Amino acid sequence: MATKTDTKPLSAEDIGITIRMVNVGGQMLRVATKPGKKGRIPTLMFNGIGANLELAFPYLAAAKDTPAIIFDVPGVGGSPLPSVPYRPWTLARWARNLLDELGHDVVNVSGVSWGGGIAQQFTRQYSKRVNKLVLIATSSGWTMVPGKPSVLSKMASFKRYTDKEYMKSIAGEIYGGDFREGDDAIRTHTAGVRAATGAGYMMQLLAMTGWTSVPWLWTLRQPTLILAGDDDPLIPLVNARVLESLIPNARLE
User: Fold this and answer.
1) Is 139 a catalytic residue?
2) Cα three-residue angle 200-50-20, rounded to 5 degrees
3) Superfamily of domain 13-146+198-252, CATH level 4
4) Of 113, 139, 140, 213, which residue is the catalytic one?
5) Tens digit of pLDDT for each residue in 76-123?
């Protein structure tokens, strides 16, 4: 039985998820797919920096009727490192190749934090394949209004994904919200962590260097839901307001 100190994470079997390796033009990706109600458009999910796909399992479990696709970014979770560093448009192309392999023409796209930037990039590159866009706790990239330097410095290290005690000690400071209130949210989060490699984490950081969506956000015509909290130490709420003001068909909640 799981206790307060050994919270058992959701397994793929618990929520009907299939995990496999897929070749997307020479790059292997560890991919999770979840069936949903017949006829529904699947959701392609982009995770946060350093986050393996298992960390999305609670959300996938809650959205039981929604078909979903999520993968480990190369160098994170079970996806091997790429042979060379990548950029957001490279990752978007891999995601497109993945959809081709899985046989999906149109998807809804969601992205959280770092993954929100990739979701924006994917929508720009492959607009005809995106039905709706959901951006969660994210920003326009290099032009964002940053959080406190003390918080950003902790995010620059992947130690929180290799040292659970360290993660517990800083979770409230870097994530805010429920993570400030007690240990339950922290235990649930850390239970599903599968550490990124140092090189993989650094590649994710470098991938977004200099990238911004500001010049072309006006071209995104998909209905867009922007979700943001008022206690986000990493990405202040003003960044969500910027996205809402620049994306024509956006709504902020």
Assistant:
1) no
2) 80
3) Alpha/Beta hydrolase fold, catalytic domain (3.40.50.1820)
4) 113
5) 999 999 999 999 999 999 999 999 999 999 999 999 999 999 999 999
